[in-house]
Amino acid sequence: MSSALNTSASQVVLSGFLSGQLYLWLMGLVLVLTILVASFATGANIVTIIVYNRLGYTDTTSISLTALAVSDMGVAATTYICVLAYFLPMIPNAPFTYAMFLSTGPAPHTLFSRVSALITTYVSIERYLCVLIPMKVKSVFTPRRTVVAMTIIFVAIFTLYPIVFLRFPVGWISIPQLNISLIAVIPVTDYDIITLYNIAGNIASVYLPLLIFPTMFFTTVGLALTLKKSKKWRDANAAGTTRGSSANGVRSTAQDSAAAATSSKESRAVKMVILITTVFILSLLPSCFHLIAQILFAEFSPGGRFTNLYFLVNMFVLTADCANCSANVIIYYKMSTRFRLATQDLFMRGVRQKRTHNA
């Protein structure tokens, strides 16, 4: 496994399903796209954290979405390291290999992605239960418990991280045949370490996605069906209210307006969660196809026959991850009035301060 991961860039380019020139052109294009999307994702999530901090953490959703923004920032930040992992070994005579970046790029990127997935699943479950049994859920999902839940998710996932350093230690390796030395992964033969890494890898890459994907899918479908049913109920209730408003007077109309406003707010919150989870599910599809291809085709791997196609698709998976991180702030801005006003105030304040300074 380590010998495959230590494959040099020149070997990668010259072998596989794609020709070397086509591979370099496509990889360069995807690399630029990935950097642009990752840069936007980084800025967008910084804005999200600042805005929710200004709004305050009085409700559980603000806490969860802030934690999601922190995790998404981790996804975007580690994407830059992954890009370096592809780019640096392409430099002629560079003493680097792709594998030396495994512990600082792909591994933490995967873990941050799993944290984001678990937080998104948590938010979708919470919102679904809030719609299904609102009176009971509000006493269970408190702000304090949400902070504890977010902390547990981060800690539980990143307990897997030290295993990566044990499995892929980095050091100088001499190649006498070529009279060169490379910074690469030192082969590990310890059975216990290899077994431990395989278990951790299965948890992060197989078991967690198998748990997260169906849970997120069914809660999203449940939310959509509940939202549709709620809309029918509101329409019927509004029709009944219109017929009885003249008999009940102004007080009844005011109460109905307040109830309608509350219902509309809940409806927007549900729609926002549905959009967040839907975008996340779509962003998971490239990763799922990538994993399925590895299972079905043994040559679709680092060092295999289709190694350049493997790396190209893998980079596209990174782009999809960053696109998901970028989409959330757009959803918040479009669906949440409080978030939109706070964001506008944040940027307008910056403009006003700049004008005052220039004056």
From TrEMBL:
<feature type="transmembrane region" description="Helical">
    <location>
        <begin position="206"/>
        <end position="227"/>
    </location>
</feature>
<dbReference type="InterPro" id="IPR052954">
    <property type="entry name" value="GPCR-Ligand_Int"/>
</dbReference>
<feature type="transmembrane region" description="Helical">
    <location>
        <begin position="309"/>
        <end position="333"/>
    </location>
</feature>
<dbReference type="Pfam" id="PF00001">
    <property type="entry name" value="7tm_1"/>
</dbReference>
<feature type="transmembrane region" description="Helical">
    <location>
        <begin position="273"/>
        <end position="297"/>
    </location>
</feature>
<feature type="transmembrane region" description="Helical">
    <location>
        <begin position="147"/>
        <end position="168"/>
    </location>
</feature>
<keyword id="KW-0675">Receptor</keyword>
<dbReference type="GO" id="GO:0016020">
    <property type="term" value="C:membrane"/>
</dbReference>
<keyword id="KW-0472">Membrane</keyword>
<feature type="transmembrane region" description="Helical">
    <location>
        <begin position="22"/>
        <end position="53"/>
    </location>
</feature>
<dbReference type="GO" id="GO:0004930">
    <property type="term" value="F:G protein-coupled receptor activity"/>
</dbReference>
<dbReference type="InterPro" id="IPR000276">
    <property type="entry name" value="GPCR_Rhodpsn"/>
</dbReference>
<protein>
    <submittedName>
        <fullName>Chemosensory receptor B</fullName>
    </submittedName>
</protein>
<dbReference type="InterPro" id="IPR017452">
    <property type="entry name" value="GPCR_Rhodpsn_7TM"/>
</dbReference>
<keyword id="KW-1133">Transmembrane helix</keyword>
<feature type="transmembrane region" description="Helical">
    <location>
        <begin position="65"/>
        <end position="91"/>
    </location>
</feature>
<feature type="domain" description="G-protein coupled receptors family 1 profile">
    <location>
        <begin position="44"/>
        <end position="332"/>
    </location>
</feature>
<keyword id="KW-0812">Transmembrane</keyword>
<feature type="transmembrane region" description="Helical">
    <location>
        <begin position="111"/>
        <end position="135"/>
    </location>
</feature>
